[in-house]
């Protein structure tokens, strides 16, 4: 096969510059026929083959063609002045791309850095990757917020919203609400009291076993059970000693250390509680109901991690409070030297029968001066005694309990060896109210030392068997400073409540902590309220502790009267 020759033709040379020479006589003859030629200048605007930044939908003339195939509009310059209209418009309309699909967008590409205000010809692009980045940023921000809320240690933070708390007492329709006091007003109160006066000491104390100070997680000790020692949680008006002091007109206001500590630490409380107030004559009695929440110990009250709401769950708030009370009682008796050597006081235990084995406890009936003609008497408790440098020191014994490390975020068995401060800081965050109440009770009793035990379950799902991992001691005044507990503010809260109640008429009232708001309410109740409304819920055999009803029988066995009016009649006589 013979291939045809390809002739390029004559290419004129312009020695004077760029472009065709000035004389076009020879060049025009060599040009192909029927090809239009338009001379141009370098300053003129060049046309575009395709404009990928144009929005065909904003142009009314292109909407019809765009509805057929939007990908073709980037090649449509019918409305552009850069190119004149062709002689046959049908030729442009018949032009189609072989592949009409839009080019794939890169998964990770540069962000649009164009401002719509300055570049109105650019479209408002909504990239999928931009939206994905926004969603990922929101997820990351939410994760950081959750992590921050779980780890911050501010006790005044917003309370957890997942849990729904119930009132400690059922508010009856016939009750008359007299006043409600927000906790914000308590923080501004301050009142200083002089040193208290000891009126009477009752009971007996066993000595503290110092070997428990050397207990560590590596040589833990099993928590024993003291089924045959009786513990008493007697309210104010059932106490025969307080009745006697009221008859002798020793004071105007009467209470117990547990009730006073609840009032003093009220701003730190989350769970609902209630205190019965009886105004009889010129005297004021602060009482607790039978089976009150004050007999139990709250667990994880100020924690941000919600506990299970099912009451029968071993990690529910109620189950943990019963378990904590059981641990606290047994711990307070196990760390003693049980050799029969006891320190006895003026009178025996006022709630025990003769020959009955009772727990090691001493009751200090103390009197504080609140005003020129107003005194307060409270029954305070200490659980042990120790001789340090030939000086006798009183101790209060309490136990913190670990039930599941996933709720606290700190494993005691690992951290107590090297980071005891971190464990205590976590407990101060999760149990701020309970620790503050223990500190207040130690200050009221003028205890020289408060011992805190760290008791954990043998297994997270076994709430019957426990071990003692460590015991630490603190001076109450120093510990109060560490947890920011002000003695002046504590007594300021008590003084304000007493002044408010002394203005009430004679009768019975109840002070209730609102279950969902940081405030307390005062209700006027009938005289026979809370008399016989307590139904005892028996504990498992392994957790038997002294029930409140048996305490009341112990009071009756000592010949104490059950009618408060008898005390008032005797006092008035």
TrEMBL record:
One GO CC annotation: eukaryotic translation initiation factor 3 complex
Compositionally biased residues, Basic residues: 108-120
Compositional bias segments (type: Acidic residues): 563-573
Keyword Metal-binding applies: no
Alphabetical GO biological process terms: cap-dependent translational initiation; formation of cytoplasmic translation initiation complex
Biased amino acid composition, Low complexity: 545-562
UniProt GO molecular function: mRNA cap binding; translation initiation factor activity
Matches recorded under InterPro entries: eIF3d (IPR007783)
Subcellular location: Cytoplasm
Highest taxon in the source lineage: Eukaryota
Keywords: Cytoplasm, Initiation factor, Protein biosynthesis, RNA-binding
Short name of any one Pfam family annotated for the protein: eIF-3_zeta
Region described as RNA gate: 293-307
Stretches with biased composition (Basic and acidic residues): 124-143
Region (Disordered): 80-147, 537-573
Entry comment, domain topic: The RNA gate region regulates mRNA cap recognition to prevent promiscuous mRNA-binding before assembly of eif3d into the full eukaryotic translation initiation factor 3 (eIF-3) complex.
Family per similarity comment: Belongs to the eIF-3 subunit D family.
Role according to the record: mRNA cap-binding component of the eukaryotic translation initiation factor 3 (eIF-3) complex, which is involved in protein synthesis of a specialized repertoire of mRNAs and, together with other initiation factors, stimulates binding of mRNA and methionyl-tRNAi to the 40S ribosome. The eIF-3 complex specifically targets and initiates translation of a subset of mRNAs involved in cell proliferation. In the eIF-3 complex, eif3d specifically recognizes and binds the 7-methylguanosine cap of a subset of mRNAs.
Complex formation: Component of the eukaryotic translation initiation factor 3 (eIF-3) complex.
Stated name of the protein: Eukaryotic translation initiation factor 3 subunit D
Source organism per UniProt: Citrus x changshan-huyou
